[in-house]
Description:
Layout: E1 5-11, H1 14-29, E2 33-39, H2 52-65, E3 69-76, H3 96-115, H4 118-121, E4 124-125, E5 128-129, H5 141-148, H6 152-162, H7 176-183, H8 189-200, H9 202-208, H10 210-221
Parallel strand pairs: 1-2, 1-3, 3-4, 3-5
Helix pairs in contact: 1-8, 5-6, 9-10
Amino acid sequence: MSKGVAVTVIVEGDTEQIFVREILAPYLGAKGVFMTPIILSKPGQKGGDVRFARAKNDISRHLKQRKDAYVSLLVDYYGIGADWPGLKAVKPQASPGEIAAAVCKATQQAIEAYVNNDSLSARFVPHISVYEFEALLFSESAILAGAIQVDPQRVEAIIEECGEPEAINNSGKTAPSKRIEELHSKFKKTSDGIAIARAIGIERMRAKCPVFNCWLDRLESLVEGCAAPT
């Protein structure tokens, strides 16, 4: 029986780091996936514009640091830079799943070419959120509405309009974070957002967010009959 696998998760910012460390890591740790979140190197920047030129260096560095660990990503489609692989492959009106599949496939291929080492690139698990961390908070409308003290029907109307949490779109005015800010102007994602995420729980998020669920499925599958990678 496997003793589990270590996964270094390169995240976009403080909120994602807290989410992984305090909520996601304990959940997956119980399943044998031991996560360590590391904030992406972005000298002089705060959030957004997550450029692949920097990300590929971080990914390569962490793949080389530990031969017994996998490396994954938690960045969002809304915030990645124009140089990110696969953006041109995303078709107009693509679903969240189609967006994630196109970008993740291209990202995997780009990392394979960059590190030029099969044993290293085999330990890379790409993931693109569609969209923003705040999209996960729409997984349970009653909990989100209660936390920001609005009528649940206002939250439900947003979900009905878009179809699912991960489809809440990414314009400057209609991104998940902007939707919540319209409902509650004092919303702070590093505190309020994490508290809401904790109340909702990973299982509810998985049930409502297929792209997020697919990522966790992939991470969990690493444990099944898995010896430490070489």
